[in-house]
Amino acid sequence: MYAQMVKSEATNDDPEKLAEFQAKIDADIKIEPKDWMPQGYRKTLIRQIGQHAHSEIVGQLPEGNWITRAPTLERKAILLAKVQDEAGHGLYLYCAAETLGVSRDEITEMLLDGRMKYSSIFNYPTLNWADIGAVGWLVDGAAIMNQVPLQRTSYGPYSRAMIRICKEESFHQRQGYDAIRKMAEGTPEQKKMAQDALNRFWYPSLMMFGPSDKDSVHSAQSMAWKIKINTNDELRQKFVDQTVPQAEYLGLTVPDPDLKWNEERGHYDFSEPDWSEFFDVIQGNGPCNTDRLAARNKAWDDGQWVRDGLLAHAKKKRAGQVAAE
Ligand SMILES: [Fe+2]
Ligand SMILES: [Fe+2]
Fold it and tell me: What whole-number distance in Å separates Cα of residue 22 and Cα of residue 35?
């Protein structure tokens, strides 16, 4: 199905239908699964929602790693709930992608063999408990920045999934900020750990918004289709403006010597991340790419018997051999 769709993209969409479609988008009318849509719109959405779903699922790995080592029962319960939320986000998003005519199995296989990507941030390791605070504060903080505008995205199922997800994301950001605050207000060693986590996660978090607008391949068309609402640079600036005062409140230093409030612009000036690192991580050379994909592949293989069992049960049910629930 997916290969078929990509192939048929080469055929030109009917200009009249295209104009009608764009008029609907411009009038803020949501596009629903059964509505006509250009092949490029469908393909871009499958890629974007699929990558988003994969990021939620792969994103469970660095934090899941710390559930058994959380410092208190309360922190453990909070982290457990947060990581479970991420699984739920992945599921809503796989369902949203399925409404575009691609199956969950197909896009999962594309993640597992490297044809589809997930957010580069999850290829960085979480080395200690302070990193868990930094992930919630910065990574979920950046995710919210990206996701709040997507509640208004033009594709109905994606927009509705985002509304639900955003409610949970704000809890994720707050629990992370609270965890790192505790460390920043703790012993000198704990404060040092909090600072070290900020040092390591700052630039990878800035990279989460994607390359600069001038280098971003998909931006202009996606914005016209309202699949994307703000540019990468706008969102990155917003994130910096929100996060710097939070770091100051914690008594931590953002690891950027050029960071400065710009009175004239009404924004912070800051240094760009090292984009060669970003592209290198995307290419599979980040510190944890191999581990992350190996973990997902193992989970997929280990779960084969569950999928087989469910399919066998569904088949029997259809044949009337087991009672309907
Ligand atoms: Fe999430
Ligand atoms: Fe989250």
Answer: 13
